[in-house]
Amino acid sequence: MLLGESRLFEVLRRALEEAPGDAKEALFIGSEQGLTRYAESCIHQNMLVRDRLVSFRIAAGKRIGTASTSSLEEEDLRRTAQSAFEAARHQPEIPHFEGFPAPSPVRRVKSHFAPTARTNARARARAVKGVFDRARKSGVRIAGSFATAESEVAVLNSNGLARHQPFTSAAMTVFALSDSVSGYADAYSCDVRAVEPAALAERAIEKCLRGRNPKEIPPGRYDVVLEPTAVSEVMEWFSFTAFNPKAYDDGMSFLEGRKGKRVMGENVTIYDDGLERGGLPMPFDYEGSPKRKVTFVRRGRGRDIVCDSLYGAKLGRPSTGHALPPGDPDRAMPLNLFMEAGDSTEEEMLLALDRGVWVTKFHYLNGYLEPKQAVMTGMTRDGAFWVEGGKIQSGIANMRFTQGMLEAFSNIERISKKRRPIKTWWSDVGANTVPALLIRNFAFTGRQETSSKTPDA
């Protein structure tokens, strides 16, 4: 149950008024998450987790200290703010620090849906039972998870800034397993009604049945279709190694020194927008600055990066409203990432493959090989198929790839017009909302052993 704007503002304002320091900020993050996990077509875990965290940032001159507590008791908040002040006195000065953000207008977005907030363990179990029933008829086993959450964020500071936003989210994964292969489907939304467990089950089961008795194909370059889940995993690494200010400042980002220069194909535009309704919107960041739309790649050419207020001041850029909670080493990150849609359907993309590979998702992706060229390695998993003559012919044994993604994203021939929000592993606020891609000459470098082991749910 949400504490609400009025109560949080009252408690946090009092704590800030009593706290020492030259500049003061309080951040509240609270959530209640229900999680149903299942494996071998049986629910094995139901959890309800309530989390509360209050973080203070206190400045003593140009020194900033942080401290956190899970309590909203007045005395605990007072002690925590005092701890942040004491920590600030022992920190090195930050020459470019000019204070915490001032109030500025923030647009309202709808990110809280009552049906999601009302979804309980019984409702999730009913939905999962329907998945089990479909799997039983098809002779496959089922694993996965179904999570629903209600959360809220509040930020106040000594400049008079006061923000509050409630959220809901629903995420479901379905793995269908046989003795030799697995199939996968997922969904993520603010509104639980958009998850559609029955449709997810059908997709995962179809992939599993189609992939039985997978054949091996030799390493080499193949044309591929990447489903949105696979595309999102690549985007996560772009966020880590290219789109944030730390990577840019460290010289790791492929955008560094390339503004206005060609880095990908002309049909590629990638941006972050916390106000766009197609994803999971968030109107401000964790220091209360309004989210601004930031374009990283426009029509194949490098553009900008996201910033919080501190990195913005250091790099001579305004904050774009992408600060992470205090203590996060990356400090700023795109949490509402989008890739611009194209004009193809996935059916048309399949027909355009004369000989190639259809990829559902990746596994163990690593983007640290050569970040300046976005070289990544990983494996296919839970649904890789051989395509010939525009038709799926069979499943294939999982393949390892090592591929420069700047090259791959320069070889995109088709982009789907439908995009899906995909949950990132690090945040329940935001998503990667991306299309499917048809890419020519994708480099597969080895084969992997096929396993029917139940995936992590």
Overview features:
17 strands, alpha+beta, six-stranded antiparallel sheet, 457 residues, single chain, 10 helices, five-stranded mixed β-barrel, 38% strand
Summarize the structure.
The protein has 457 residues and is of the alpha+beta class. Helix content is 23%, strand content 38%. Helix 1 crosses helix 2 (74-89) and helix 4 runs parallel beside helix 5.
Structure commentary:
- A 6-stranded antiparallel β-sheet has the order 3-2-1-4-5-6.
- The two termini are 26 Å apart.
- It contains 10 helices and 17 strands.
- It is of the alpha+beta class and 457 residues long.
- Helix 1 crosses helix 2.
Structural class: alpha+beta
Major sheet attributes: 6 strands, antiparallel
Mean pLDDT: 95
Uncertain runs: none
Tell me the fraction of residues in β-strands, as a range.
Answer: 35-45%
Q: Tell me the strand order in the biggest sheet.
A: 3-2-1-4-5-6
Secondary-structure blueprint of this entry?
Blueprint: H1 5-18, E1 23-39, E2 42-60, E3 63-69, H2 74-89, H3 114-118, H4 121-138, E4 141-157, E5 162-177, E6 182-189, H5 197-210, E7 220-226, H6 228-241, H7 245-249, E8 270-272, E9 294-298, E10 301-302, H8 309-315, E11 336-339, H9 346-351, E12 355-370, E13 375-388, E14 391-395, E15 399-404, H10 405-408, E16 412-422, E17 431-447
Parallel strand pairs: 7-12, 11-17
Antiparallel strand pairs: 1-2, 1-4, 2-3, 4-5, 5-6, 7-17, 8-9, 8-11, 9-10, 12-13, 13-14, 13-15, 15-17, 16-17
